[in-house]
Amino acid sequence: MAIDEIAPDVYRISKYAPEIDLQFNQFLIKDDEPLLFHTGMKSLFPSVLESVSSLIDPSTIRWIGFSHFEADECGSLNEWLQIAPAAKPVCSMVGALVSINDFASRPALGMTDGQVLNTGKYRFRFCQTPQVPHCWEAGLLFEETNGTLLCSDLFHQNGDVEPLTRSDVIGRARKTLIDYQAGPFANYMPYTKHTDGILQNLAALKPQTIAPMHGSAYAGDGERAIRDLAGVMREVLG
Ligand SMILES: [Fe+2]
Ligand SMILES: [Fe+2]
After folding, report:
1. Which residues surround the ion ligand 2 when the cut-off is CB under 5 Å?
2. What burial class does residue 111 get, using C-beta atoms within 10 Å of its C-beta: 0-12 exposed, 13-18 middle, 19+ buried?
3. Between β-strands 139-143 and 123-128, what pairing exists: parallel, antiparallel or unpaired?
4. 62: CA distance to ligand 2 center in Å?
5. pLDDT tens by residue, 152-177
6. How far apart are the CA of 133 and the centre of ligand 1, in A?
7. How many Å apart are CA 166 and CA 178, to the nearest integer?
8. What mean pLDDT is predicted for residues 145-151?
9. Are the C-beta atoms of 144 and 124 separated by less than 8 Å?
10. Is the peptide bond between 133 and the residue preceding it cis, with omega within 30 degrees of 0?
11. How far is ligand 1, taken at its centre, from the CA of residue 12, in Å?
12. pLDDT tens for residues 180-220?
């Protein structure tokens, strides 16, 4: 596991899986009420726990957030709920009602679009993004103080890449989408009549750091990067 602070108090905990040439990134945000975004799969739990333990007391985690209901997003949710007795899952209201409140050992905070979660110093705005990157219940969290967008599978880049870059990641993200379209992972992300509008709304947040689950985080003009990604998604998937 590699641990890097990619924005103030935002730690990227990354595991590279060489057999699929893919990184799985979990993000820990240190605050009065610490937030873990993505738990990683169950198989990663011991190593993510060890990494989190090197940063904070893991039993103090208060929020466990994720975009949608998949193993890399929330596979070890129940293991984390056991380790951290005050922790609560945080996801979309749809995610809570459709899957999480049944799957998880404790109910979730189900967020609606624009709702804000305060963790102390930081404020996380919930963006409801159905089918973006994928799944009905999809949503993203935007940390408003430093402008960090926790963007799940958006900006997915394959490879064992650097934790944070200021160079354009669009070329890599485009290549990944094109490569996936040619193989067993085709149609990874649906392209609906709502996709572009959702991406334009995310761009309007003007993120300064974009934090994907797979690949490098990007620091720079996040508005432009998301508009570029919208163009790539239209080109490759539309
Ligand atoms: Fe996903
Ligand atoms: Fe993912």
Report:
1. 72, 153, 213
2. buried
3. antiparallel
4. 22
5. 999 999 999 999 999 989 999 999 99
6. 7
7. 23
8. 98
9. yes
10. yes
11. 17
12. 999 999 999 999 999 999 999 999 999 999 999 999 999 99
Say if strands 164-165 and 63-65 run parallel, antiparallel, or are unpaired.
unpaired
Contact 70/18 with Cβ under 8 angstroms?
A: no
As beta bridge partners, residue 219 has: 209
What is the C-alpha separation between 219 and 115, in angstroms, rounded?
Answer: 25
Q: What is the pLDDT of residues 29-86, one digit of tens each?
A: 999 999 999 999 999 999 999 999 999 999 999 999 999 999 999 999 999 999 999 9
How is residue 80 written in tokens?
A: 């984390």
For residue 50, report the distance from its CA to the centre of ligand 1, in Å. 24
Q: How far is the CA of 38 from the centre of ligand 2 (A)?
A: 9
73 alpha carbon to ligand 2 midpoint, in Å?
6
Distance 52 CA to ligand 1 centre (A): 22
Q: How many A from CA of 67 to the centre of ligand 1?
A: 8
